[in-house]
Amino acid sequence: MADGPWYWCLDHAEVEPEAGCPNDRRMGPYETVAEAETAISRARARTEAMDRADAEWDED
Fold this sequence. Notes:
Layout: E1 6-9, E2 14-17, E3 26-30, H1 33-37, H2 39-59
Antiparallel strand pairs: 1-2, 1-3
């Protein structure tokens, strides 16, 4: 693939170049394809960590 920037498309669940779907339907930009490929899993992991932190805070 060519140089970036790269995006993770939320509609198509795949990496796409800058000339892809509208920005409100994708995550990025990322410098590499590998970063874009793991964007959704990293976002889910951060959300889960914040949900746990919120739950722990609510217990105090």
